[in-house]
Amino acid sequence: MVDDGDxxxxxxxxxxxxxxxxxxxREMQDPHGRRYRYPFINCTDCGPRFSIxxxxxxxxxxxxxxxxxxxxxxxxxxxxxxxxxxxxxxxxCPVCGPRAIYRDAAGKPVAGDPIALAQKALAAGKxxxxxxxxxxxxxxxxxxxxxxxxxxxxxxxxxKPLALMxxxxxxxxxxxxxxxxxxxxxxxxxxxxxxxxKKDPTGQTWLSATTRLGVMLPYTPLHILLLxxxxxxxxxxxxxxxxxxxxxxxxxxxxxxxxxxxxxxxFLLHDRPIANRCDDSLAMVWRGAPVFFRRSRGYAPQPLLLxxxxxxxxxxxxxxxxxxxxxxxxxxxxxxYIGDLKNAETLDHYCTALTGTLSLFGLQPTxxxxxxxxxxxxxxxxxxxxxxxxxxxxxxQHHWAHMAACMADNRLEGPVFGLIWDGTGLGEDGSIxxxxxxxxxxxxxxxxxxxxxxxxxxxxxCIAGIGRTALSxxxxxxxxxxxxxxxxxxxxxxxxxxxxxxxxxxGMGRLFDGVYSLLTGRTDADYDGQAPALLxxxxxxxxxxxxxxxxxxxxxxxxxxxxxxxxRALCAAKTAGTxxxxxxxxxxxxxxxxxxxxxRTLNPDGLPVVLSGGVFLNRALLxxxxxxxExxxxxxxxxRRVSPSDEGLALGQLxxxxxxx
Length: 661
Prior knowledge:
It is a single chain. It is built from 21 helices and 26 strands. By secondary structure, it is of the alpha/beta class. Strands 1, 2, 3, 4, 5, 6, 7, 8, 9, 10 and 11 form an 11-stranded mixed beta sheet that branches. Strands 23-24-20-19-18-25-26 form a 7-stranded mixed beta sheet, with helices on both faces. Strand 18 and strand 19 form a beta hairpin. The radius of gyration is 25 Å and the shape is globular.
């Protein structure tokens, strides 16, 4: 075991990777300096840290810089207490440090300046794999619909929004609008991807069908050089993860050359190994602060400080947005972004990251916590560790963990009233929950409200087949003619009427899926969460139609919002000629008003209200629900340090596990 002083030193040593500081940038741009245009310049104030650490204590032999012996000049800086490179473990220069290399489509090295070769390839519309700090990206020029279409086709990513890397703020401003707070975060050393409003909400559809674009600024010297235009390269690039479908981002040069055959036209790589995979962080700025979709590069593995001792607790998270959290003292070590654990390669990444975090910070679990769902890969991992190490295992209901995560995020003790809206989570009764109202704290909870369940014909088939959910909603509301046509509709109708293979779900995410299908006639989704994102974009700026029907009923002590009048009103208004945008805005407005009604009825003591679940990544709902509740006098708390999605759920499991000790 390590004492608190040791832990503080470890936390300081295993810091996040940070963008180049101003001093290093000036040095890199000095044609008379020995690091002129050197892609791996760094000092104690900036550069790689988490991505290169293999173990602690943090010394060069314990990092992926071990194979690069410092030259006399670098060694002199390293030993000079007056230098900003005093004891900078990644310190290097062109003489002794890592080197970039450019390879052709077949993976063969190409003679010449690697940055120049990459810039010229990108300018010609080619796709280039680019190795950064925590993984490899696929890049192409963002202003070329043809280049982007080629990348989408080769990567089998037809519609999902693509992240952009802009040379600077003025470049981003050609396409996007940003606030002072957004500009400050974009230029911060953490350099997350931020969702920025498009200047033209209907523009750049080849990049994203929504009204926002995910934009980041270069966060390594190599990226800065790649985008500087010295050799005619573009100043705005698509920068999306290089990976096999559903797999983690690639790390190794040879793996990348092999896996990206037929996708990349060239490879801008380097010879510094990556010890810890770390995807780009993704956030939006709301009320002046970030709300995370993914908390990863630039933030992980920096722990969160809590108001309670969580020593010895290890939480395994959920599945689709897998994560874990481990505790020591009042520090919660929440993992970097990992992804969907249904994929074997991603599960391997999860296990490797978990083992690495425990080892790196000397964490020794004594209590394990996992989700209630028995088929989650994270649950199986928890069960296996519990059996192997003879540790107690606690299973925590999914939405209670969400509520506790928001409490811990805001350092609340409880009791609180929780609005927990997401897509899927196993309930105590064996059904699928997701539009829940809970009262409780870290010790216990009580479900007091929910949505009317919708039958999901074929279960998980409804995640991609959103027309199935639309048909279910329409049949339940008595207006089946409003549902769109799709293949096998008759068979799905038969399933619904018989109840066979029809899981009952009160998930808010599935309600969004079905409503978007009813509004637009679209029956399939290209990726999970697409329909809610497109519905949010459709509604933005529209005058909302008045669809709200305050219909509720009691069932087993749970006050349920009856969705049938809302669906009938929506279908009738559509038939009468009301536009889809007004209906989408009206639907979101109805949900906000429903949240206020439920809170007034189910929270008579005026408990603090916490909002959690992936649905609260919808800006309109986050703002609308918060404003209505605050206007009614409630204290409302939202996520700021971890994502409201399942990625942040492990923090709640950790807090519940600690409270039960």
